[in-house]
Amino acid sequence: MLLVPKVNLKYLLILSVWVFVVVGTVYVFNFIVIYDPSVYVGGDRGARTSLIRDYLTSGQYNQLVDVANEMELDVDPMRERDFNEIVRDIETRVPFLPLDFWARQTLIGRKKMKPQCGKFPSIFELEINNDLWQTQRTSNGTYQLFGAYMDNRKSNANDQWYIRILGMIDRVDTHLPMFCQIWYDQQEKPVIVPLEEYHYIWIKSWGNAFDGQYQPYLLSCPIPWDHRHLVPVSVSLVEQQCATATNNLKVLYNRPLDNEKKMFAVCVKGLDFLYQDLSVRLIEWIELLGILGADKIYFYDLQIHPNMSKVLQYYRKLNKVEVTKLTLPAGKPNIPGLQHLFLTQKLYQKRQNEIIPYNDCLYKNMYKYQYITLLDIDEVIMPKGDILNWRELMEMISAKADHGSPLPFPSYNFRNVYFLDSHYHLDRTSPESRDIPEFLHMLQHTNRAAVYSAPNEHVKCIHRANRILTLHNHFAMSCLQGSCAAYEIDVEDAQLQHYRYDCVTTVQRKCHNMTEFYVSDKNIYKFKDDLIKRSLKTLYQLGFLKIRNDSTVSP
């Protein structure tokens, strides 16, 4: 027999009333807090904000229903842009598309320019590859075109002017007859001229020089004499002169507004540092080049670490650097990670692709600077002795090398010497080095290989911008107005300081001598105080400094 305990109804009633009172009190309390006019209107909004935040963090989303109007959205308020705004936005992303010209000449989908020969191609008909390249297929190879530039530098005895087209072709030694369709503002039909010359920017013996692999080229379209008073707007390359092209490149003509040239531009190849954060070393390097006299540094961005991108954007706002997005052409990978693997495994193709940003940088800046130099972010052209900057260095070198010649050397090359990681040396007891922060790499490495690299081996040059036709990483490939011979700088005057973990792979057999035998070289110390101050300021501004066992120091 089941026994049921006797329930005292009196106590049960008291318990029920007590629960009702407690629940009701909590509800009324919450109601008063939420709807209290002193909090709601002009009262303690901090308390109300704190309460809403508590609801959000504790997941009590049902409590937010009654206060939804007290919150606001934090989303992109961008409105739909009109046609002209979209055109301007695209031009900032893809500088070689002649979008403004096309927009002025064309209604969407309706071409106004209808010549009998050489129809102006619609932007929608161009074969754009990997965002930045334009493709033209021919009977003997495929052309991947990157940029076009107006070149009115003195080139030869005839003083011919050209449009230079930079790109890659999957042929070696190609001489296929092609035509340049040159478009000018206020003209309804193009000026059509034969392509005059292919400039191959590679040496076959270096490797990967065979048909089917894309090779770097500079193509020259002569500008007719009766059009020298006009600046071309765009150019297309075609095999049949009256064909409608699948490419149309905006012609860049970057002259300084005041027609005054600055001294030094530095060009840096496509950065591939997706998995390495070299932001601190990048800051030290940029600051040192600024001290030495670089007016601006031009970077090309393949894939980089977010912190390095943050550094470059910081300096871009200060107008000290310019960053251009870069992709690989044709079927080459541009997927993050996969691109990095490709560049590490396909070294010859990597080096051939590097030719493009180097020459793009030259042609964008040939009117704006007297000198162009190509450097990696682990290299510095270091003046020696009492010379404090590149301007003083070039004045001294020019007086020594050119002797007032009307046709000075086109390039001046600097011998390479390694400052390897294994050469690390910092005497903390020395007054001149004990205040150097441990994270400033170049200031920490003041021992170098006792032996320089061989002459013309891994050199870097300072080039005269008005004399160079095509550039390779280490030297000029072809020049204007005569010989392309470079003047070798005496190592007593300056050197190329190369900060690496190890020697480059091509000189591994010689690396033992460079690793084992080293000497002290503290030339960089003449910039030490200024370099430390500038680097620390930037690290602080970017929030990269951190007190040990504490939070980041923020500005």
UniProtKB/TrEMBL annotation:
InterPro entries linked to this entry? Glyco_transf_92
Residues passing through the membrane, by range: 12-35
Any one of the GO CC terms: membrane
Descriptive protein name: Glycosyltransferase family 92 protein
Signal peptide start-end: none
Lineage, uppermost ranks? Eukaryota, Metazoa, Ecdysozoa, Arthropoda, Hexapoda
**Entry's Pfam families?**
Glyco_transf_92 (PF01697)
Q: Where in the cell is it found?
A: Membrane
One GO MF term attached to the UniProt entry: glycosyltransferase activity
Entry keyword annotation includes Transmembrane: yes
The entry assigns this protein to a family as follows: Belongs to the glycosyltransferase 92 family.
* Record has Acetylation as a keyword: no
> PANTHER family attached here?
GLYCOSYLTRANSFERASE FAMILY 92 PROTEIN
Which key words are in the record?
Glycosyltransferase, Membrane, Transferase, Transmembrane, Transmembrane helix
Task: Specify the protein's topology with respect to the membrane.
Answer: Single-pass membrane protein
Which EC number(s) are documented for this chain? 2.4.1.-
